[in-house]
Amino acid sequence: MKWIYCFILITAIWSCRSVKYVPIESSVDSVVVEKLVEVQLPPDSATIRALLECDENGKVVLSWLDIANSKNAQAQLTIDSLGNLLAKMKTQSDTIYKPSKEVTVTKEVKVPYPVEKELTRWQQFRLDIGGWAIVILCITILFFVIRFIKF
């Protein structure tokens, strides 16, 4: 009977193991994204000053003209036969798009968590063969041992 108690005590000692933790692994991942960035240009302007007079025939005559343009604005003035002053302005786009590289860094941290203990060879064998097959094998061996002892 004392062998049974020793066997139970040894199995109880083997089953008491501390909880194992998965080590913390951290990885830094960076992504480079190339995209177009909108850049606003300063506003353009043009100033036009003109002196229009009538001549002796009753027609409109341009006496003097002063045009001040910025580098992206172009002014075009015309006077038609009826004396109408037509002003046309041409400007370039106020926004341009420049390529830009954006680096996105994502840091992924894994938190440790408890993991079940690793299986011993005996436990893995029991899982592979099956607990019932081992029990049947032990009962068969005990049956033959008891039968052998009686004879």
Number of strands: 8
Helix percent reads 25-40%
Side-by-side strand order of the widest sheet: 1-8
The rough form would be described as rod-shaped
Q: How many DSSP helices? A: 3
Mean pLDDT: 77
**In what range is the share of β-strand residues?**
35-45%
N-to-C order of helices and strands: HEEEEEEEEHH
Low-confidence stretches: none
Broad structural category: alpha+beta
Summarize the helices and strands and which ones pair or pack.
Layout: H1 2-15, E1 20-21, E2 26-40, E3 46-54, E4 60-69, E5 73-79, E6 85-91, E7 95-109, E8 114-115, H2 121-129, H3 131-150
Write up what this structure looks like.
The protein is an alpha+beta fold. Among the domains are: 38-100, no CATH class; 116-151. The chain has helices at 2-15, 121-129, 131-150; strands at residues 20-21, 26-40, 46-54, 60-69, 73-79, 85-91, 95-109, 114-115. A hairpin with a 5-residue loop joins β5 and β6 (85-91).
